[in-house]
Amino acid sequence: MTNLPEGHKAGPPVDVVIMAAGMGTRMKSRLPKVLHRLAGRPLLDHVLDTAAQLEARHAVVVVGHGAAQVEAACADSGSTLDLRFVRQEPQLGTGHAVQQALPLLPDDGIVVVLSGDVPLTRADTLRSVVRACAGERVALLTIELANPTGYGRVIRAEETVRAIVEQKDATAAERAIREVYTGIMAAPARQLKSWVGRLDNHNAQREYYLTDVVRLAVADGVPVVAHRIDDALQVAGVNSPLQLAELERALQRQQVRALMEQGVRLADPARFDLRGTLTCGQDVEIDVNCVFEGRVTLGDRVRIGPNCVIANADIAADAVVRAFTHVEGADRSAQDRVAVGTGALVGPFARLRAGAHLEAEVHVGNFVEVKNSTLARGAKANHLAYLGDASVGERVNYGAGSITANYDGVNKHRTVIEHDVRVGSNCVLVAPVTIGAGGTIGGGSTITRDTPPGALSVARGRQVSIADWQRPEKQK
Ligand code: UD1
Ligand code: MG
């Protein structure tokens, strides 16, 4: 362990190299490995996040397999980093990968080497590695594993790190060493450039090993130190679908612990998925099998029933979301999020799409779809209905089977339903149209023109009853 004082800010600026050129053969996927998703985001996004927390000056991503796709995904990640890409073709090893990246980085910095498939390293761990490097040493992140098979072993003499030996090159005695290199190191840029330039591939895999830098540093009299951690999750890499799923569960357990420590009550911590951020007030209850995506906030005493999927939404205090509800707010803009007001009741089986804004005490029941619409305080749409591009006034009651026909095949138009309107069942409100305050729409009406306030509007074939109707009989 290194014992440098916490909070001591290392001098030289930090630059990051992220190796992401590998094929990821064991994923057996056409998608480049670093783009497989953990907690809803590409593995590489997690690494970019960590690099951003390090306040890295530059970040160079080494791409190869699926290069264009990986570069595009980085552009989509919204990362605040100064990102650059180098293509490594063919892939001749980790040393070769870093060699491609170094010409893009200034000499005066500390280079931190990360892998695109190791997503859960904490920024404070990396800061410790940077402090251990301090611009004048090589610092390795290491861990002791019960089963070190496959990893590079850390060779020490009298406690001092002398080399890293890859599994395939290791002697039986070296293979017995349980301290392994995690793939993460920090080194002074100027010297790293010289070492990387002197690497050879005279080894079992005929690869240029970044790990051979350690020997070269030792030969140059540059100290090599190891920052050893014991949290395996932080250095776990993803190589197979099974490992990805295991890491997903481990990450979910971590998130669950943090939420439950804040007092959030999850019916079953093993049946909960957060793919984004969830901010909860006090006494929030979440039943089993719920998935939260993007940025979601839940106010005090909010209750979420089982099997709900909730994305990009703000659900205010005392609201209840019942089973099987799908809230699918978008994160393009604040307007596209979903808002559920205080004490509102949503579901079961409701669907709130982007821009659904429900004020306090609104009820939206089963098989009701709401998109880009505002429902003012106390409005109700309890069964089988569609509200799209609509403004719904206070206390409106919107009947079963009624819809807004908001799309004429080319353009979308708005429907305005003023306060205290009652829309009967099975109505079609053909937008653009305004239903005047306090008005009533008779069941089965197709409304194509604005209706006056207070009026009963009926727009359907008038009922006829023909007395003593003789049903036709079959001709013989
Ligand atoms: C590497 C280390 C090993 C360490 C282990 C930790 C070397 C030589 N060995 O081994 O000591 O214990 O990580 O997980 O560094 N990559 C490229 N271009 C290449 C080769 C690899 O970009 O030419 C990328 C891969 O996509 C991956 C990362 O570098 O993200 C690590 O490569 P990998 O082949 O997994 O190295 P290991 O054999 O696991
Ligand atoms: Mg590996």
Describe this structure in words.
- The chain is of the alpha/beta class and 476 residues long.
- It folds into 2 domains: 14-235, Spore Coat Polysaccharide Biosynthesis Protein SpsA, Chain A; 241-457, Hexapeptide repeat proteins (UDP N-Acetylglucosamine Acyltransferase, domain 1).
- The protein contains 8 helices and 36 strands.
- The strands form 5 sheets. The chain has a 22-stranded parallel sheet that branches. Strands 5-4-1-6-10-7-11 form a 7-stranded mixed sheet, sandwiched between helices.
- Strand 2 and strand 3 (41-42) form a beta hairpin.
- It is elongated and about 105 Å long.
- The relative contact order is 0.07.
- The mean pLDDT is 96.
- It binds uridine-diphosphate-N-acetylglucosamine (UD1) and magnesium ion.
- Uridine-diphosphate-N-acetylglucosamine binds at residues 19-22, 62, 88, 91-94, 96-97, 115-117, 151-152, 164, 166, 180-183, 209-211, 237.
Number of strands: 36
Structural class call reads alpha/beta
Q: On the 0-100 scale, what is the average pLDDT? A: 96
- The CATH class of the largest domain, by name, is Alpha Beta
What's the alpha carbon Rg, rounded to whole Å?
Answer: 31 Å
Low-confidence stretches: none
Shape: elongated
Q: Terminal Cα separation, in Å? A: 101 Å
What is the number of helices? 8
